[in-house]
Amino acid sequence: MTNSIAEIENSKCIFIIGSNTSEAHPLIGSRILKAKEKGAKLIVADPRKIQLSFYADIFVRHQLGTDVALINGILNVILKEGWYDRKFVEERTEGFKEFRKVVEKYTPENVEKITGVRAQDIRKIADLYARSKSSSIIYAMGITQHITGVDNVKSLCNLAMLCGQIGRESTGVNPLRGQNNVQGACDMGGLPNVYPGNQPVSDGQMAEKFEKAWGTKLSTKPGMTLTEMLKAAMAGEVKAMFILGENPMVSDVDIQHVEKSLEALDFLVVQDIFMSETARLADVVLPGVSFAEKDGTFTNTERKVKRVRKAIEPIGSSRQDWDIICDLSTRMGYPMRYDDPSKILEEVAQVTPSYGGIYYDRIETEGLHWPCPNRAHPGTPYLHKDRFSRGLGLFHAIEYLPPEELPDKEYPYFLTTGRIYVHYHTGTMTRRSPSLNKEVEEGFAEINPRQAKELGIIQGERIKVFSRRGEIEIKADLSERMERNTIFIPFHFVESAANRLTNPAFDPIAQIPEFKVCAVKIEKVNH
């Protein structure tokens, strides 16, 4: 997030796209509702009629995978009406001429044909967002989990820069992370092409710095993404895999392929707190600990580094995750020893500029937002105040591309996936909670009632949903939340796993699969 969570409450306009915030991020959703109570204008763009749409000043349902077209349409209106921030564009950006040339083609009338959103609504969104004193963009995986995920994000950055709605309080481009400490994992080098703090592996000077800090020779060749690892496992090029706190047998696209890839390995190790669907395939399961059994830090979605304190001793044979990793490393030939987690954070501060001033004694009572380069620095609640990290902000000229798989005669409907309020990710924790599981005990497919009537389907009836990857049996839930040509299935339920259907096509840059769009067909189940 470019801005902090607290700032959302004081935004004058909030544009939510690709995020079911009140269900997937309820605490942030409450901030949005507080902003609304204070008079903020609320814009919601989502193919599904989510809860926040009922509070919106304007709600639009664009066709799945048409985000770039919709955003370009909004940009087109802002440029035509002269509502953009000329001073900001001239002084703090580059690439404007090429960007403008592309956007001029996306008139509201043309965009209406692509997205299904009325031209007049596109104009209204542009008016509300551009002319507000402080507008905040909030998005989540409804934006990123497409073959054009990077383009979608760049388009939102174009919008924020064009209107000067970045680098100030209560503005910005604010992605909401999907799980606790995802931001922290990325910050610590949990990506194949960077060291901690997004320092490139391919940079020889960076490699030298970390070689000196860690006392060993390092490769300057980037590693594999998850998509690449699974392909390499199938090809016999990756022989062993270590999976920590992840359950790809439910969460990853095209589960049949995931299962074959993991079974092709010579050796699989899973470190987790429960015997997940993935752990059941492992040769060795290492018992880690929950948040209540560990000391350390988490970095949340707003870049805030917070202390985590152990409330109970680890149960049974489970151990602190960092302790297990150190032991494994030492046994494999690289001695790795720390007295306690505070020493790990001290090392992080020494090699990661954005964490340079973050130490335990500074976050005893309140966390710090990175970048925090030294001990005297107060942290940075919002980014890009005076300049962008690259100097000038770069406009990107982005053309709309359709999803990789569209409905046809054989598979006539769109499928999109997501989360619901009561369950978390693959359900390994929430479905073990009797009170939570009682709220929603099984998966369901949301279908528009008119579409269901055409198919002869009634509420609660069992149906089969097929894609080119596989099929599932699931309960039908008739709901006006969905348009006639689209169904929605939450991905939390292994017995009706939505990801048996999803398309493994992925973004060529980020390599994130297209979870949010694929083509399916529906049949009644005759038991």
Q: What would you note in describing this structure?
A:
The protein has a six-stranded mixed sheet. It has 19 helices and 23 strands. It is an alpha/beta fold and 527 residues long. The longest helix has 15 residues, at 67-81. Strand 21 and strand 22 form a beta hairpin. The chain is globular and about 65 Å long. The chain has four domains: 5-176, Dimethylsulfoxide Reductase, domain 2 (3-Layer(aba) Sandwich); 178-222 and 288-373, Rossmann fold (3-Layer(aba) Sandwich); 224-281, no CATH class; 413-524, Beta Barrel (Barwin-like endoglucanases), CATH 2.40.40.20.
Provide key terms for this protein:
globular, five-stranded parallel beta sheet, alpha/beta, 4 domains, 527 residues, Dimethylsulfoxide Reductase, domain 2, Rossmann fold, six-stranded mixed beta sheet
Low-confidence stretches: none
Number of strands: 23
Average pLDDT value?
A: 96
CATH topology of the largest domain: Dimethylsulfoxide Reductase, domain 2
